[in-house]
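The following block was generated as part of the benchmark described in Methods. Ligand: nicotinamide-adenine-dinucleotide.
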Amino acid sequence: MSTPTSRSDWEALAASLTINNQAFINGEYCDAQSGETFECTSPVDGRLLTQVASCDLADANIAVANAREVFEAGTWSKLAPVKRKQVMIKFADLLEANADELALLETLDMGKPIKFSKTVDVAGAARAIRWSGEAIDKIYDEVAPTAHNEIGMITREPVGVVAAIVPWNFPMIMACWKLGPSLATGNSVILKPSEKSPLTAIRMAQLAIEAGIPPGVLNVLPGFGHTVGKALALHMDVDTLVFTGSTKIAKQLMIYAGESNMKRVWLEAGGKSPNIVFNDAPDLKAAAEAAASAIAFNQGEVCTAGSRLLVEKGVKDELIGLIAQELKSWLPGHPLDPDTITGAVVDAQQLNTVLGYIKAGEEQGALLVQGGKQVMAETGGVYVQPTIFANVTNDMRIASEEIFGPVLSVIEFDGMDEAIKIANDTIYGLAAGVWTSDLSKAHKTAKALRSGMVWINHYDGGDMTAPFGGYKQSGNGRDKSLHAFDKYTEIKATWIAL
Ligand code: NAD
Ligand code: MN
């Protein structure tokens, strides 16, 4: 079929789609050992898409044993980097070649607009795989500055078996930010997608095999966190656990590692990112556009969402007015309509969380400026209006807790010192925006922010070359860039007496 260009094209493709719902172990699709499945329901219209294999400890044991065996055998782990590179590039090509199908699976499974599933999610996933693959034959090891009669070699080796546990908001991208560097460095990987969005991970596994990744090197175990996720996190033969998800679960994973084999644990967790607009912002309209997309894009289900808008007194009213105007173009529409830019929330549970926070905002005395309501209920799907609260103080729940929905909290400040104080008054430290024409103020503020990413005079920038991750309870370690390779390699010092 040619590329769909209208909602009815996408609906036709959806009707003809065969959805794979099995686990993927040692190069083959299989049911869970227990035969259990869980329902995969679309938030677009409430339709049951399929029943997905619900893996648990028994499946984790088989997958880890296979992953270990293939790692020891060296069919992938000992392959020359240039060869692994070629396979990774082929894998990226195949993701792109199957972009329509993957984008459709992503949209049906977790509700995001098809436009973004294709241009952001599939494209970003392919970029991550390709970038990591292209990098791997260009990274050199080190030789220590020794005396004449000895040689000190400092080499990187793959850790072995990696378990990757990922969330549902960008299912393919979050997976590929882990798969790129872990596969490129020669590890065997077990990917556990979120129970809310398992479909693209299941499909990607087959494309990886088609690209030439040997069986057992990439395994996919769909299932719940408390079953298969926990089994992987406690497993004695998983060497490294990489995770993207909530801070609450991230902390639990550190406990599991301590209770088991001290596996390395790398966490990308939640955020409550401040977007700071000073009176001297160079372009208030641009700041408003960015602030609107920072809270509305992906239905607000973004770890780096600019959910706290810190605005200096002098421009507060004007900026709120501009953002309110901007957010009118972010009203939800049908996710398969190519013009839609806001889709469905991932599921009814998440919708209730968002509506609960909107209620809490009103109860704690914040001013509801716009939005706040569930919409399009007649579709059977779950949709909510982008919402703005003004007169918010940083101690209110809508300002201190991660909502993971399109709810903006506007907090007023007076001067740089107060802005920095409010910005840092959070358990999180993922990202921050700063809008000012004053170069020195921009740098001073950026340096003072306890945050892994700072964006000056825009929001949410960066590409594969820039590390992505947080300070404080937003996690440790970084995805993207060569820094991500640190998570998947051990450093060996070999000292040779000549
Ligand atoms: P979550 O923590 O509920 O779940 C994440 C994953 O962990 C899922 O696969 C889940 O099944 C699994 N899990 C749950 N309990 C587990 C357990 N006891 N043992 C092992 N695994 C378990 O998070 P979510 O709701 O899927 O995703 C939203 C969160 O992800 C938000 O907090 C968001 O900020 C964060 N996030 C962070 C980044 C980042 O890069 N920092 C990126 C995207 C999302
Ligand atoms: Mn789903």
